[in-house]
Design brief:
It is a single chain. Strands 1, 2, 5, 6 and 7 form a five-stranded mixed sheet that branches. The chain has a five-stranded mixed sheet with strand order 10-9-8-11-12, with helices on both faces. It is built from 20 helices and twelve strands. It has 526 residues and is α/β, with parallel strands linked by helices. The protein is extended, with a radius of gyration of 36 Å. About 3% of the residues have low confidence.
């Protein structure tokens, strides 16, 4: 029997199970038709047309005919509709669990409320923590990395580098804890990690037969930091990268006193302040007295007092170099030849290797439309960080701006030139996946006499076997970094209040949930 009642609040479906049908005992599994009584189960299901759906199901309680079974009576279950001790249908239960995995407590409760399913955040978290974790299979290739848990506390994340799925995580980055996990899960053949001494010791203790692979990205990152330290120590050499000022390359002219800046609001404000400060200073008053009267900072008054014209305090800051700078001469030439279409000019620059956006070309030629010169950058020496990026970038990927300035800098500073040569030798080893010259390179690194490179040589020599594997092996820690990004996302969704148990549950389950839906999508598209 089946009946449906629809109200504004709920859709109620009343149904009965068939009498005379046999049902399996929940204790021993033996079939029985001996009915004891009936009772009504109230089951919540997913909404219908935006209304909550309630199923009032009349089920039988039967006697178990097996005298050896500890159960005297049992309630029959309807496959796909009921589960023991559950007031939700399996379909609604899976929905609640999936929403809890994806959005956690508050977010999951709000999403379910949109679906007209009323559950508190505590109930959502409770259902989430009841979901069993998938069985842990010891991976052949293990990824190990750390992540910031909260404050100054770090955690450890283990990833199966083959399936790219997280295995587990815990608080702290202790070698003994990692070794204990490896002893409990034997079978790891390859371990990918960064240059951490803690994880190196933990793998040596827990899985001494495993091949350790030092990640190429972290090796290159460590070398880049040493290059930046050297550039900072030789900051005085960095201006040598600038082109020499000559008659053929004159300095950009200063902005004329009667420029258009006076027409702007900032220009009028600067002119009024300049006249007021100069008038009071000419009366012999001190900077502090003028500052109190005008309501300005004393340093601002000093700046206006030292200036000869108000335009000096309106001077624009130097424009930062851009990827368009090497092509400004071509833009000027083509404009003089009569080509005034920014779209066509952008296409021509793309043919010459320009990778920037059309909008930047359009803004660059805007002064030419007003009869003004191109807005060229005022050269500044490269920063130590920029210098390190120049040195570590592959020569074929450097733009003409860098290829013009870097040789001048290296000729001026022997230490940076030596560093550049060593960086390029290491890059060649990475590109060719050939660690044959690694021992000689480490010796040259240690003999440079440059403190940052000498310290790096000592650290790499202690870990030379893992470094050699990092150069040759196809495995790396990229999958670890991707999963750590996912861990940070889950922490933000829970506003940083998640404990380790909840965070582990969500990180593991959400990865498997995504994989499951991706597999379903791929099957449906075939």
């Amino acid at each position: 029997m089946l009946s449906v009642e629809v109200t504004d609040a709920v859709v109620a479906v009343r149904a009965n199970t068939r009498s005379g049908e046999s049902a399996g005992c929940t204790g021993c599994g033996r079939l029985s038709e001996w009915c004891h009584s009936r009772y009504v189960r109230h089951l919540a299901d997913v909404t219908v047309a935006g209304r909550p759906l309630r199923i009032d199901l009349s089920v039988r309680r039967l006697y178990c005919e097996n005298t050896a079974c500890p159960k005297v009576t049992f309630a029959e279950q309807v496959p796909g509709l009921t589960e023991r001790y559950q007031r939700r249908t399996p379909r609604l239960q899976h929905l609640v669990e999936d929403v809890g995995v994806v959005l956690a407590g508050r977010g999951g409760s709000r999403m379910l409320r949109i679906l007209n399913i009323r559950l508190s955040r505590v109930a959502v978290l409770s259902q989430l923590m009841r979901v069993p974790l998938p069985p842990l299979v010891t991976p052949r290739v293990l990824g190990v990395d750390d992540f910031a848990l909260y404050g100054g506390t770090y955690g450890t994340l283990l990833v199966d580098a083959t399936t790219r799925l997280p295995l587990t995580l815990w608080e702290g980055r202790d070698a003994e804890q990692l070794a204990r996990w490896l002893r409990q899960h034997p079978g790891v053949e390859i371990a990918c990690r960064d240059g951490s001494l803690t994880y190196r010791q933990g793998i040596n203790i827990g899985a001494p037969e495993a091949v350790q692979v030092s990640d190429r990205f972290h090796l290159w990152q460590g070398l880049s930091r040493r290059v930046q330290d050297i550039a900072s120590a030789h900051r005085g050499c960095l201006p040598a990268a600038l082109p020499t000022v000559s008659a053929s390359n004159p300095a950009p002219p200063e902005e004329p006193a009667g420029g258009t800046a006076v027409d702007t609001r900032a220009g009028r404000h600067a002119q009024r302040l300049f006249e007021a400060v100069q008038a009071l200073i000419r009366t012999g008053r001190s900077h502090s007295s003028v500052a109190r009267e005008l309501g300005l900072d004393r340093r601002t008054v000093g700046k206006y007092a030292r200036a000869h014209t108000w335009q000096e305090v309106m001077r624009r800051p130097p424009r930062k170099p851009s990827t368009l700078d090497p092509y400004l001469d071509h833009l000027r030439q083509r404009w003089d030849e009569g080509q005034h279409s920014a779209k066509i000019l952008h296409e021509e620059l793309q043919a010459k290797g320009y990778l920037g956006h059309y909008q930047r070309v359009k803004m660059a030629v805007a002064p030419l439309r007003q009869g003004l010169p191109l807005d060229e950058p005022r050269e500044q020496p490269p920063s130590p960080r920029e210098t390190a990026r120049w040195i570590t970038t592959h020569p074929h990927r450097r733009n003409p701006h860098i290829n013009e300035r870097l040789p001048r800098l290296l000729d001026q500073c022997p230490e940076l030139k030596l560093t550049h040569d060593l960086v390029r030798r290491f890059a060649t080893m990475l590109d060719n996946h050939d660690p044959t010259s690694l021992p000689a390179w480490l010796d040259d690194l240690a003999n440079t006499g440059v403190a940052p490179l000498t310290g790096l040589a000592g650290a790499l020599r202690e870990d030379r076997h893992a470094v050699a594997q990092g150069i040759t092996a196809p495995y790396n820690s990229g999958v670890n970094e991707g999963r750590i990004t996912d861990v940070k996302l889950q922490k933000r969704l829970m506003a940083g209040r998640a404990g380790v148990l909840l965070l582990r549950h969500r990180v593991v389950l959400i990865a498997h949930l995504r994989r499951r839906y991706a597999d379903r999508l791929s099957v449906s598209l075939k």
